[in-house]
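Re: the request from the purification team.
They wanted to know what the chain is likely to look like in 3D before they choose a buffer screen. I agreed to run a prediction and write the result into the notebook, where they can find it.
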Amino acid sequence: MHGTPGGCWGGRMDQHEVLALFDRRLRRDARPDSPTARVERDGAVVRQTGAEHDWNGVLWSDLDAAGADAAIAAQARHFAARGLECEWKAYAHDRPADLGRRLCAAGFTAGPAEAVMVADVRESGTDAVLPAGVRLRPVTDAAGVDLVAAVHEQAFGTDAAQLRQRLLDRLAHDPDTLRLVVATVDGTPVCSARMELLPGTGFAGLWGGGTHPAWRGRGIYRALVAHRARLAAELGYRYLQVDATDDSRPILGRLGFTTLTTTTPYLRPPLAC
């Protein structure tokens, strides 16, 4: 089994304990999510640095008011020197309390906040069924990734070129830690989703879940969450984790997910400091 037990296995989920596990295993002790990226610790900051198409940014920090501004400036210089856009992924419980204000003062721009939701796979809903006529297609090759990218662009209205490259890299170099699926109707992709497996952490991350606007409200997103929950359980993972938008939060709540905290992306363009 890929998932490693550890903590919170008795009784119902303890939210404070799971949040501590999340911070430690997925943020402070994070591993690269790409074969072309590396995770580095710089004082009280953990960051990932990779190629232009990788996710580049700060995963975890434990700063105090006295040293926060200098640490933020150091990270901005690090990524700017490499010509990379960076994201400081800040959480509501991160220190200092005014971290967001300090990031904005240093040239970062805040994106929409999302809810960090977690479910115990033993308590999450795994019985949702697909609407009539919808079929699931596992994705294991470039042609399937093209379908994922196409749905992503239709669902979110953003360019998926970098996502496509990241997924191709992952399938080529570390396929066992990724599960991709596309929902189709008469061969046309209408929804796509992925699950990123994090061996040794007990957590599986659910990402994507984008549905073509014409097919929203029919239960496809819910069914893909349930599908991935079943896969995670079969592989021995304990927790499912999602960064949820306001649209998906009610659906996930009905599937047994609990909000632990919120996260806000702070983006900084690749400008020289």
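For the purification team: Residues 120-262 form a domain with the Aminopeptidase fold (CATH 3.40.630.30).
Please add any questions underneath this entry.
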